[in-house]
Specification:
8-stranded antiparallel beta sheet; 2 helices; single chain; 21% helix
């Protein structure tokens, strides 16, 4: 798949989220487990919601610090682990990936290559916004964002 990397200004997306530390091997299971906590919390409060979002904040020794969340378009009360956060704002490099989530390494590779070609540095935080579910993997869209350090 060819990726069309573009730059844009990203504003903050308000999220109901849970921050945790996981590993690459446990990432998929961690995301599902946390979304299974967040969604009922938001439904109980009648919150107007959007897409699932995962923010990657790096980690140490093979771990990943992630915020797993759901876009929240109306105010909600923090409950248990579920609290307020948002995606960063600033200039980003971004691509749209269509297909299996397990195949997103190529999208990250395209962003890494674009950063190298443009002499731009990622700012050590990135996120994924998952589009609406489709049974056909070719129709599953995930937008991947790299926050960029100032030029």
């Amino acid at each position: 798949m060819a990726y069309d990397v573009r730059t844009e200004w990203a504003g903050p997306r308000p999220l109901a989220a849970i921050r945790t530390v996981t590993t690459q091997q446990r990432l998929g299971a961690t995301i599902i487990r946390l979304l299974d906590v967040i969604w009922p919390t938001l439904r109980d409060q009648g919150i107007r919601t959007g897409h699932n979002v995962v923010i990657y904040r790096g980690g140490d020794g093979g771990t990943l610090t992630v915020d797993v969340g759901v876009e929240a378009f109306t105010e909600f009360a923090d409950r248990g682990e579920v609290g307020h956060t948002s995606t960063p704002s600033g200039e980003v490099a971004t691509v749209a990936h269509y297909g299996e989530y397990s195949d997103m390494a190529a999208a990250y590779g395209a962003l890494d290559q674009w950063c190298a070609d443009q002499a731009r540095r990622p700012a050590a935080v990135n996120w994924e916004v998952y589009g609406d579910w489709a049974d056909d993997p070719a129709k599953r869209r995930t937008d991947v964002f790299f926050l960029l350090e100032p030029a």
